Amino acid sequence: MTAPQAPQVAAEVLTYYSTRFDEHTRLRTSAAGVLELVRTQELLRRHLPAAPASVLDVGGGPGTHARWLVEDGYRVRLVDPVERHVREAADAGCAVELGDARALSASDSSYDVVLLLGPLYHLPERADRERVLAEAMRVVRPGGLVVAAGIQRFAALFDHASVGRVHLDGRAERTGRVLATGRNEGREFTFAYFHRADDLAAEVRDAGFDDTRLYGVEGPADSMLKAAETATGRQVARESDLFVSALAAARLAEAHPELLVASSHLLVFGRRPGQAAFS
Q1: Are 9 and 100 in contact (CB under 8 A)?
Q2: CA distance 190 to 126
Q3: Per-residue pLDDT reduced to its tens digit, 104-158
């Protein structure tokens, strides 16, 4: 078991999530955020083992996913490097811990599922991402499931275009650098790394996980929802035809790998060797 360590996340990431940004609100007060949440729930529920399996939610933020996982009957422990997130997640019905994804306090082979729905895209150096995946491999049980999220390389371009800002305030230049290098310098968003889809899947496979499956989360209509809300100044309702259509498009896009570039977020599922493949 690795001894607990103080989080060593970049200071600007900690500041961003401590004082400037509310992840829980983002996933509930914009149509794009709701679409991301609904699709993440769908994909996780499709592959998770039956409750009451144990889940380590690494980089779990304020407990947005931990809450519904607990409601579904899972035994959840949340680890996050941001003190504000750990405080907010304390009422989610799960155990909480301040910690670093690269040096988990969990014992070897102690969880059925490890979720990495945030750590990888805040670590621009591949060596750090490899450490995160190695820790996930260590703490998940043989045959257990690891789920890793990434931000798709072209997400910033689509996002700025959807709200009419590519040409403003130097965004074109900054976005061009993200497209070329994957590294975000922390203006509109914080310090981050944006993956090409195949590269994210390859990192998970290279870490030793079997039966990897790669999904685009929001699908091709994510930017349309952002554009509609920008134009009208109102949230697109979940029951509206526009949202329902966007959700249907995301589901249809799953069968077409060429559409992975349209999603803002990617999910890779992998299994530690030692048990039967996904059902």
Answers
A1: yes
A2: 18
A3: 999 999 999 999 999 999 999 999 999 999 999 999 999 999 999 999 999 999 9
